[in-house]
Amino acid sequence: MSIKLLHGVHVPHRKNTADSVPVRIPTPKVITVPMSMNIGAPAKPVVKPGDTVKVGQMIGEPGGFVSSPVYSGVSGTVKKIEDILLFHGAVCPAVVIEADGEQAVYEGLKAPEVTDLDSFVDAVRMSGVVGLGGAGFPTAVKLKADPAKVDYICVNGAECEPYLTGDTRAMLDDTDLIVEGIAMLKKFYSPEAVYIGVEDNKPKAIEKLRAAVKGMDGVEVRALPALYPQGGEKVLIYHLTGRIVEEGKLPLDSGVIVINTTTLATLTNYIKTGMPLVERRITVDGSAVKNPMNVFAPIGTPLRDVIEFTGGFKSDPKKIILGGPMMGIATTDLDQPVVKNTGAILCFNAKDAEPPVPTACIKCGRCVAHCPMNLMPTDIERALELKRPEDLKELKVNLCIECGCCAFVCPAKRPLVQVNKLAKAELNAYNKKLKAEAEAKAAKEAAKNEAKGEVTAK
Q: Which residue in 66, 86, 248, 372 has its CB near the most CB atoms, within 10 A?
């Protein structure tokens, strides 16, 4: 199958920790576990201060259909439940646990009984797994799909962000779990094919996966060009299947399920052992970090503990990013906890953290040429400045995947991806306004017609 590659950019790889086998950090003295670590409704605490908890014990039950349970990664005592401010600005309840250092495993853990699709989806839901590639969407919601509508399953091993190597280590260290997970997906969804997409800058992972799936019917490992944002869901789907996910639609609407390699390995481990998601594999790197490496840390561990375990800073950090440098979110608080989708902690010195000074657009068109969604960032910026939300709709700003390619290639250093985020919010407010006006008009017409009917009846 010959597919023309979508646009993108060649970012520096900087996979410095690709050969770093993760090390498990010492049990933190205190963990703070947020109840909101996924897209959708937060979990509801099921413990109270003074309760004793153990590793793998549920401390938060799902708060709705699009939600995910939360489990303790340490054994110890619940000290309090308090509201905390997360790094992305949201406030949510969190369970604060003082660890006893024993790491005693909860006695009630057992592997779930999986016999059919429904029990498989139930098991995925109870695993606590969400999109661990960064999205945080509850995996069970994604997998609650009609098999008749699933043509392809795409396993995402692209890991296209610079520095990040957690998925690489999953492909190298948890190969068997990934392959067993693929076998389950094939059994319950019967797709035409399963494609494992891996950027070609990870030759060891490609080689090991190809050897592992050799002989599996309908499973293929595809080496993809290292072109950011190769791991973007819509980009990956197009490059692996040739299908396009239309505006406002989900991958399943195009007959595709996408699942990250770390996500797949984690849920497979739960189905085999009964141990839910309680810890994260994290890449710690950046110019301010003394010893870049991969680590395992319980969810809820303060960022400070993780960084101190790696040896601390070799220079004063001027920017700390949770996630990759292209799409991650900066934080200034090292007491923030590790959450389910914390794939990396990147710390940069003053030179690397210096923000560029924007200058006037020179109309070069690089942002347009490199946008993987074929958008026109300069026109979007202009429409936002002129407060023309109807133009934003025409310019399809909601197709923006916020990858940052436009800002990365802009010679004028315009903050284009930030502009696109603001433009989306502006368009959303405009659409809500139109909807409210339409509903008010309909209500007025209904009242008018009702009044006419009463007059006629008289």
A: 372
